Amino acid sequence: MGGDTQQPQLRISINAEESAAACAEFILESLAGVLKSQPRATVAISGGKTPSLLFSNLTKSGFDWSNVHFFWVDERCVPPGDDQSNFKLANETLMLPANISKHNIHRIHGELVPEEAAIRYIDEIQQFFDLKDHELPSFDVIHRGMGPDAHTASLFPGEPLIENRTGIAAAVWVEKLKSHRVTLLPGVLLAAKHTVLQVAGADKADALYNVLKGAEDPLQFPCQIATRGSAVAAWFLDTAAAARL
After folding, report:
1. Are 195 and 202 in contact (CB under 8 A)?
2. 201-242, pLDDT tens digit by residue?
3. How confident is the model at residue 4, as a pLDDT?
4. 3-state DSSP call for residue 193?
5. Tens digits of per-residue pLDDT, 160-173?
6. For residues 12, 194, 55 and 31, what is the CA-based torsion angle, rounded to 10 degrees?
7. Under CATH, which number does the domain 9-238 receive?
């Protein structure tokens, strides 16, 4: 599915707020469509500054979340109450305000030793999706961001795991940030039914140009994973991020 050659779906809004609203609408429509044909839906979400606007829009939507299960694309190895925690951001701006059941929340336990956190997350995903050994989950929606260096999830330029297509998740050490993290791996990103990318800010313009129009080199531009030539990837951009396109 991720290998089909297609022109990217680019949705450019005047600012980050309008882009977040459009992104929220797309995710809600995708989840509603999934729930028409199956009893539950899955979404993997990201952290950072840009998603907070998205989460606020999702909270205000009045959507029935009772059959939607939330996972995380990546997480810093910090306690869930730490300001650096991706879970904390989503919990405060979406989970609690939207009264989402704890049963539907499948967080990465960043308070554990990184390798233990990765193993626990893999186990939870395998049990939820009823996977056999070596099978990968197919999330209904994966929401991703991109850094100014073109990283996505916690897959940074030069990370050897960028070439891993068989694993579900792993612990990584991000040297430039001196940060332990747990991240979903490329095979899972490639298996998503819908990939939603939310990018805002002038500091992302060069990276976005390289990801979409530069040489195809995921090791240097990790955000090309499951987006370059993908029929299921939709980009939600503000004009600042899209300035070079």
Report:
1. no
2. 999 999 999 999 999 999 999 999 999 878 789 999 999 999
3. 44
4. coil
5. 999 999 999 999 99
6. 120
7. 3.40.50.1360
Phi, psi of 149 (to 5 degrees): -95, 10
123: left (phi over 0), alpha (psi -120 to 50) or beta: alpha
The SS3 call for residue 183 is strand
Retrieve residue 142's tokens. Answer: 């994966």
How confident is the model over 21-48, as pLDDT tens digits? 999 999 999 999 999 999 999 999 999 8
Burial per residue of 148-163, b for 16 or more beta-carbon CB atoms within 10 angstroms, e otherwise:
ebbbbbbbbbebebbe
pLDDT-derived band at 12, boundaries 50, 70, 90: very high
Tell me the domain boundaries of the chain: 9-238
Distance separating alpha carbons of residues 131 and 118, to the nearest angstrom:
16
Length reported for the chain:
245
Question: Beta strands of 85-177 (E only): which ranges?
Answer: 141-144, 169-174
